[in-house]
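Researcher: Sit down with what I've pasted below and flag anything odd:
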Amino acid sequence: MQLDPAQAFRLDGEVALITGGGSGLGLGMAKAMHAAGAKVVLVGRRPDMVEAAAAELGDGAFWEAADVTAFDTMPAMLERVRAKAGEITILANNAGHNFKKLAVDTSVEDFAGMLDTHVLAAHNLTRLALPAMLAAQHGSILFTASMTSLLGMPQVIAYSAAKSAYVGMVRALATEVSGQGVRVNAIAPGWIESPMLRKALDGDPARSNRILQRTPMGRFGEAEDIGLAAVYLCSPAARFVTGVLLPVDGGASQGF
């Protein structure tokens, strides 16, 4: 089937649910997908944040205040989304958090909480959204991975484990569902200006300098960079792309 290059990067008719959509990378995805023609549903724990973000986007943007680790409440949340916006055709598993601790100071509870937010919550939403996508033979599932999916970094052992698990999930899901019209991919953001980055780097100029020195492009990225990559991976332009982990990192994963 020949694609019109002018329409290949459009998302008209798509409904994208984006977890952690009220700020940072999730909001960057929402803005780009909305601009490309998709309806977007921003999901986050803070109702004031997701409501304000959806209002900023305007028509075709919706919001849900929800905690993705409240696993049993997710079926009802998805039904509310469907009633508002229609059947979900794009799921962006983006919600997450991080903390810095030495491995010896990271408790079992710390580790389990990280896996709950990233791995189990993403799996739960994916399994709930998949049946309709498979029935329609159309859909895209996206995971926000990390540089820690590719590189070893100190003091983030739980986060590294969770984000590395995404790589295995993408590969397994892609082989399982891509033949039925559902593509599965991940983005590995580099160091992107966001509240999470500021929390990690503020007051630590030495760490900021190390990051910039190993990033060939010599700067931090922007949330829009992740949004544009998400649009590509979920658009017809990427119709033969599945099971990939796409670094959007200014070359950091290749730098020295």
Observations:
- The CA atoms of residues 22 and 50 lie 4 Å apart.
- The chain has a mean pLDDT of 95.
- Strands lie at 15-19, 39-44, 61-65, 90-93, 139-144, 182-189, 245-248.
- The chain has one domain: 15-246.
